[in-house]
Amino acid sequence: MPAQPEGLPAPADGLLPSSAAACAGGRPLGLYVHVPYCRVRCGYCDFNTYTAEELGENASRQDYAAMASREIGFAARVLADSGLPPRPLRTVFFGGGTPTLLPAEDLAAVVDAAREAFGLAPGAEITTEANPDTLDAAYARALARAGVTRVSIGMQSAVGHVLAVLDRTHDPARVPQAVAAVRDAGMQVSLDLIYGAPGETVQDWQRSLQTVLELEPDHVSAYSLIVEPGTRMGRQVARGELPAPDEDDLARKYEIADAALHAAGYRWYEVSNWARGPQARCEHNRLYWRSGDWWGVGPGAHSHIGGVRWWNVKHPRPWAARLMAGQSPAHGRELLDAQARRLETVMLGIRTAEGLDMREAGEAAGALETVLADGLIERDAAAGGRIVLTGKGRLLADTVVRALAG
Asked: Does 5 reside within a domain?
């Protein structure tokens, strides 16, 4: 997993500078809860995750709900003491790792702690990621009783040999059962896919997409495989044991996915995300893309409040120890200046179907002409003062960001 950034020292009391409170009342507030446990660490994954054998006392799954609830209480006190007005949570998102390795009652306890500390806004979205093998009807019903509104299932592929090269251990036949369990419990279903794994053919990818369409989820995420240095797959690619992803192959598979999903009634609202109508979009991710505020709970979780970003210590043991001592679990933090905020606004906003107000791009008129001439942004939207990527532009989103950010 990647090294942790250093940044500025994070104060033990967690208090934020006065600048963080500016305009806080107009910004939505979300909660991200990082559950760092996995049965097996996938070879491509560089997330902050741990198997049971790597953990000890005050760092186990059994302790997690109590420690996460403690950090939620700490968060509410810090925001109040830093002068931010009370705001109910618009979104709660359990990510990982595999949150559903925890008993559903543990996730419910964390939701209860969030409700008690902050309150939940009317219609608040509560999402958990899930491995198909961890979901059955009883578990899904327990999630729904806890207030969970949507479940994002890590399907990744419908093809056995693709799952094997990704080190995914679930049985593809479990995905339809998991989808049915979530739907029968009254929650929305999202399916997550990864394309571009070594050995995955176009036919394999089409089979995965066809399986998704037959299951009719509310939402689909499709991400290209990124081989990260330091992962097992990264080492395999470096040694020549596996081929690196091919950019042309990735582009073709993205276009295939976009066409198939569009034909089935899904619309892209962010480069890697499609939904069946606005009500099926992931509001938590939209909070990120619109530079909202969120507190990240858990080992290694990142937070952002009013231009202040910080990140927790990565290992569950020191994370828990700091919370038990009444101290912030933050490892470091940074204060975003105007230039950094503008870069983030461009980088995140440009990836959405809503696009970016040209005024937020700053002095980039020359660059606009270039990306417009290259067919990377919509001409009609540009005439109306907004920057919206074309299909070609979505494939080259980083190029557009670099052009506009100067």
From this structure: no
